[in-house]
Write a structure and sequence with these properties.
Elements (H helix, E strand, L loop, with lengths): L1 E5 L9 H10 L5 E7 L3 H12 L5 E5 L14 E2 L7 H22 L10 E6 L12 H17 L5 E3 L1 H7 L8 E7 L3 E2 L2 H14 L3 E4 L3 E8 L7 E8 L4 E9 L5 H6 L12 E5 L20 E4 L5
Parallel strand pairs: 2-3, 2-12, 3-9, 5-14
Antiparallel strand pairs: 1-13, 4-8, 5-7, 6-7, 10-11, 11-12
Length: 307
């Protein structure tokens, strides 16, 4: 078993040679209606949907390779459960359809979507972590309220007993579990594969995607008669090349805050260190009893409130 820590330092020097080679090999366009900065899952999705809505001049700039930032090691959860917003729930339902049906049909590429199911556990509050934890009744009532709203929005949410949880996920300790909320058709996607599918679908619709092009700053200009107001004018790429743009979309991930500063825009985004485990195969996480062959345990989420 290996433990990995990923921080901003990992990608500060990644692809320096790549940027030099690609940014000098091909001349960049001088103007685009929309410049998208960042080639992760968010940037490619923005470019795809802009083109799908009829935007004919979209330029996506990625400083390294697509998914080279934080996308490549994202968890990839595809979950429709959990929101009390009809807008958010509709977006979640659309996104699942996008990854499971729309993109594979448009591109012929597999996004890695696996409908293994999703379990949200309602467990007893642990006072060791949070002395002001809500009561068991409040915690369970909250999830039941969310589940009822999600059902109203068309999400198939099932309330399960601790015994049901144990059957679905044998490694889960259930002595402090009050109930669980299960969506059988939720699951996870492969973030890299999903990004590749979005990129291919974007290019098919005319999006210009350039890798190895670092955006140094967002350019702004004063609005005539705007009493000090400013508007975006374009971006400046590494090497000083200027690309004029009517709109700029900042999809730079954990670098979005630094990029925003170049145009005096505050992006409330803070990069945080996180960990994940790479393990050998664990049979209990493979195909539990009662599941179809090859169908793994569902994705499981536990809410932990810490002081």
């Amino acid at each position: 078993m290996q433990l990995f820590s990923h921080t901003m330092r990992r990608t500060t020097c990644l692809g320096a040679n790549l940027r030099r080679k690609l940014s000098t090999a091909v001349e960049l366009p001088g103007h685009a209606e929309v410049v998208v900065v960042g080639g992760g899952i968010i940037g490619t999705s923005v470019a795809y949907h802009l083109a799908k809505r009829g935007c004919e001049s979209v330029l996506l700039l990625e400083s390294h390779r697509l998914t080279a930032g934080t996308t490549w090691h994202a968890a990839g959860l595809m979950v429709t459960f959990g929101s009390l917003s009809s807008t958010s729930t509709a977006m979640r339902k659309y996104t699942k359809r996008l990854y499971s049906e729309i993109l594979p049909q448009e591109t012929g590429l597999d996004t890695g979507f696996k409908p293994c199911g999703f379990l949200e556990l309602a467990s007893k509050p642990n006072e060791a972590f949070n002395r002001s934890a809500t009561s068991e009744k409040d915690r369970l009532e909250e999830f039941r309220r969310v589940a009822a709203f999600n059902r109203f929005c068309g999400v198939d949410v099932q309330e399960l007993s601790p015994r049901d949880v144990e059957d679905l996920f044998p490694l889960c300790r259930v002595d402090d579990v009050l109930a669980a909320f299960y969506v059988p058709t939720d699951g996870r996607v492969n973030p890299v594969d999903a990004t590749a599918a979005l990129a291919k679908a974007s290019r098919t619709r005319g999006v210009d995607i350039r890798e190895g092009v670092r955006v140094e700053r967002i350019l702004c200009e004063d609005v005539q008669g705007g009493a000090g107001r400013r508007r975006v004018a374009g971006v400046q790429a590494q090497g000083g090349q200027v690309i004029q743009a009517d709109k700029v979309v900042n999809c730079a991930g954990m670098w979005a805050r630094e990029l925003g500063k170049t145009s005096q825009v505050v992006v409330p985004n803070q990069a945080c260190e996180h960990y994940y485990l790479l393990t050998d195969r664990i049979e209990e996480v493979g195909t539990p009893a009662g599941r179809s062959l090859g169908v793994p345990c569902p994705a499981l989420n536990v809410l932990v409130l810490c002081r």
